[in-house]
Design a protein that fits this description.
Elements (H helix, E strand, L loop, with lengths): L1 E5 L5 E7 L4 E7 L3 E6 L11 H10 L8 E10 L8 H7 L3 E8 L6 E11 L3 E8 L4
Parallel strand pairs: 4-6, 5-8
Antiparallel strand pairs: 1-2, 2-3, 3-4, 5-6, 7-8
Length: 135
């Protein structure tokens, strides 16, 4: 399990990459929302490589977009948060929590203006977007 957190005056977030059970969980503040999505391990940086990548990210001032981006459509609310395990429950308990589903569709399938973007170590951009059919 890898936990990556960013705190700033522009908004704070925390993401847990649960390599063992195959979930990505992201908590975004001040929106007070959590997203749970299925992790495609082949698309993620390797667990063993994360410490070196984090150190590299701290030492360098990156410009531009992350090397890779994954876009998720925000789906249905999670009803049984405890079923995802104690770590996810502890992180998201008391917050609105939604399932988020990875998409590879054209951008007109979702509203880019309503995306929450997380830049994780400047390696991976996680975009959580409302679908065009989502109210």
């Amino acid at each position: 399990m890898a936990t990556i957190e960013k705190k700033s005056t522009h908004g704070s977030w925390k993401t847990i990459w649960h390599y063992n059970i195959g979930f990505i969980v992201s908590r975004v503040l001040p929106e007070k929302v959590c997203f749970i999505s299925i992790m495609k391990i082949k698309e993620m940086p390797g667990f063993d490589a994360l410490p070196a990548l984090a150190e590299e990210s701290r030492q360098m001032k990156h410009q531009g977009r992350p090397a890779k981006e994954i876009t998720f459509i925000i789906g249905t609310p999670v009803r049984d948060l405890m079923s995802y395990g104690p770590d996810i429950f502890a992180m998201c308990n008391g917050l609105k929590t939604y399932m988020a589903y990875e998409v590879h569709e054209p951008q007109d399938a979702y509203s880019q203006g309503s995306c929450i973007r997380l830049d994780v170590l400047h390696l991976l951009g996680l975009n959580y977007c409302r679908g065009n059919t989502t109210e």
